Amino acid sequence: MFYFLHHLTHFSDGLGVLNVFRYVNFRAMMAAVTAMLVSVWLGPRVIAWLRRRKAGEHVGDDADLATLAALRKGKCDTPSSGGILIVIALVISTLLWANPSVRFIWLTLFCLLWLAALGWLDDSMKARKKTRQGLGGWQKLTGQVALGLIVGAWLWMDPDTSQQVRELWLPFWKKPVIADIGLWAIVWIELIIIASSNAVNLTDGMDGLAIGCTISAAAALGVLAYVADQPRLAAYLHIPQLKNAGELTVLCSALFGAGVGFLWFNCHPAQVFMGDTGSLAIGGVLGVVAVVIQQPFTLIIIGGIFVVEAVSVIIQVSYFKWTKSRCGEGRRVFLMTPLHHHFQLKGWSETQVVVRFWILALLFAMVGLGTLKLR
């Protein structure tokens, strides 16, 4: 909305100051501030509303995972579904500061709202049943697959992104390793969105953990999107150039600000949890931004914590099933997965785990940005 204010400069020289609304860097900064303020202002109201809905977190009992249940005993009355706060702040800030004529901004917001609705349904079922089980795994996956097909088809047919999404780029390479993967691009986009969405979802298990790692990833992706919008800079750094990609910098900045605002209430001891409403939506947004600017493999580096958390679950489940079939008894690699619970059960305090994972997330983000020069 504010983007169009710069057009007023055509009517009067005295309005030249409004030219600042043309610049991505200014609007990105303001989007972050706006999202943070909206999140902080709405936070107490959203938390109170969730408490009235009795959308409390179910943390298990002595019958299942007794040690972890004991560690999380004080969290049982903390409302979940707080990710709605992030979604609202992100949408409002993006609509205020991004250029609404850029189609992939609307696509990203569509992805955000779709996955937020899916997560909200899952969280609501958990709250209603007072269990840790909401939607079935196949039900959740079906919703993600459907979204992935829509997003992939949209980007594949959109003239602004059609050629770009068919290329396969790798970090450290100056040119695409495959120039045209054809319709496989849709499958590839779908896999990235599903993987990113679920990886963030798995990371959301401690106060401030997922959102703190998201803040670093959003900032790094925002830088990549800004560089992709600068023809000379993109050519110099040998990365794919995309007109108007800078508008995704505005969106990533809004996610950064919304994340900081949410962290105000989600830091230990948390007043609210994001739930699947937030984690699925945030992961999907990171995935969409990465595929639009052709940096999905760089996202794997930037979101290294999310990747490690997801891989730990895959290793644990696979090894347990393999040893059960071979030895008749399932064995574990970790004390518990996702990985943050492994360290918690080894005696690390929740704050130690979260802060150390934040440090690693920042390091992963810096390494991801470092790939821009190593090509």
Give a description of the structure.
With 375 residues, the protein is mainly alpha-helical. It has one domain (2-294). 66% of the residues lie in helices and 0% in strands. The protein is built from 15 helices and no strands. The protein has helices spanning 24-52, 66-71, 83-97, 103-129, 137-157, 162-165, 184-203, 209-228, 231-237, 246-266, 275-292, 296-302, 304-327, 339-345, 350-370. Helix 5 packs across helix 7 and helix 12 packs across helix 13.
Topology, please?
Blueprint: H1 24-52, H2 66-71, H3 83-97, H4 103-129, H5 137-157, H6 162-165, H7 184-203, H8 209-228, H9 231-237, H10 246-266, H11 275-292, H12 296-302, H13 304-327, H14 339-345, H15 350-370
Characteristics:
globular
Task: Tell me the Rg in angstroms.
Answer: 21 Å
Task: Assign a percent range to the helix content.
Answer: 55-70%
Mean pLDDT level: 88
Strand content: under 5%
Ends distance: 38 Å
* Morphology call: globular
For the sheet with most strands, the description reads: none
Class derived from helix and strand content: mainly alpha
Secondary structure: number of strands: 0
Q: What's the domain count?
A: 1
Number of alpha- plus pi-helical segments: 15
Give helix and strand order, one letter per element, not per position: HHHHHHHHHHHHHHH
- As residue ranges, the low-confidence spans are none
Précis, in short:
The protein has 15 helices and no strands.
